[in-house]
Write a structure and sequence with these properties.
Layout (H helix, E strand, L loop, with lengths): L1 E3 L5 H6 L3 E7 L4 H16 L4 E6 L4 H6 L7 E6 L2 E7 L4 H11 L14 E10 L3 H12 L4 E4 L25 H14 L4 E2 L6 E3 L5 E4 L3 E10 L3 E3 L11 E2 L2 H4 L7 E5 L3 H13 L3 E6 L8 H8 L4 E5 L1 E9 L2 E9 L2 E6 L2 E4 L3 E3 L29 E3 L11 H16 L1
Parallel strand pairs: 1-3, 2-3, 6-7, 6-11, 7-8, 11-22, 13-20, 14-15, 14-20, 15-16
Antiparallel strand pairs: 2-4, 4-5, 9-10, 10-11, 12-21, 17-18, 18-19
Amino acid sequence: MFTPIDDANYEATLQGCEAGVALFYKKLCPHCKNMEKVLEKFASLAAGVSLFSMDIEENPAAAQVFDAQRAPTILVIKNGKVSGKKAGLMNPKEMLAFYKANSPPVPHMTRRAIVKKKLSFDLLIIGGGPAGMTAAIYAARANLKTILLESNITGGLVNSTYTVENFPGRPGIHGMELMETMRAHVDSLNIPVEEVCEIEHLVLDGMEKRAETADAVYTAKAVILATGRHPIALETPTEAGDVHFCAICDGAPYAGKHVLVVGGGNSAFDEGLYLLGLGVKHITLVECTDRFYAAQATQEALLGSGKVTALTEARVDDLIVRDGHLTGALLDHKGEQLTVDVEGIFVFLGQRPNNALFAGQVDLTEDGYIDAGIDMSTSLPGVFSAGDINHKPFRQITTAMADGTIAALSAEK
């Protein structure tokens, strides 16, 4: 569906394009994988639009010409010229709006069918991280007719993990690579998977459960909720476009610059090491509590680099923005005001549960998690939960997989 372009052929290829969209990506960028699926859905509605893709790391000259160092970056091509550019992730509705704002309506744009498909299954799995994919594998082995619906791409937050050091048998593997192997196992069992799938309505009570999207109505006898969590945003009075949640996606433009990393857990330290590997000149690392929580070996690697200023009992009070660009941050460090000069911020403050779909139907804890039974059952018959959405003391890839295993075996009964 995508036509690859590179440093050698991009000019001739794009100049001959009447209407198109170009995706500038990195191989290990989770947002890029997500954007690829979004564009595939977009293209299914816009038959006259050509799709192009370029690997930023393998084609730095063209990426520099288009100022597309951030991944993903989307270009709208109109009569051989760039008519619109945007960096970052968009959902299908946002992508359609962005395209329409930067190009005339496409003659072949198709209308969405009014009559939705009605599909029936034994088991509906909502969420495609390690818990959801493990549940799908066990369900398929039990001959349950199963479908997996994922709002983004399969793999969940593990896709954003630079290195997974504690997965048995695969030490040092990149998170996205690990999730791709798990997805390959799911695909080998012919389990249908719908990615970039927005559930508009979910009904969990009664004998028949129902999930409705823009395209279809899915019904099932049982449901496994494996919706996981999402990153906590940095809340400051002043906003800036230079605030990021993924070093792999957005770190390259900060080579030779000073950045701020917010958070004291494994993600903050792992991403900090990745940023130094990209050539970031200096990192100011801030954690609001009185200590860091990352693995000791990772702490020693980052803090021993000589390129990090580490502050505990510190928080970001505000951002300093001049002429639309971030130039610094105002910190509260143990009650004293501190200004640091930074050009980018990477935020790793932890996660919150993705419960909006079923809040008010399934009983939740005060923090918004599902208090599942030992068989992963919830407060509703036929509804199970697995992974990081569950209330539990430890959240690891392996614990999510264990939850998914148990949930699928329980749903089989």
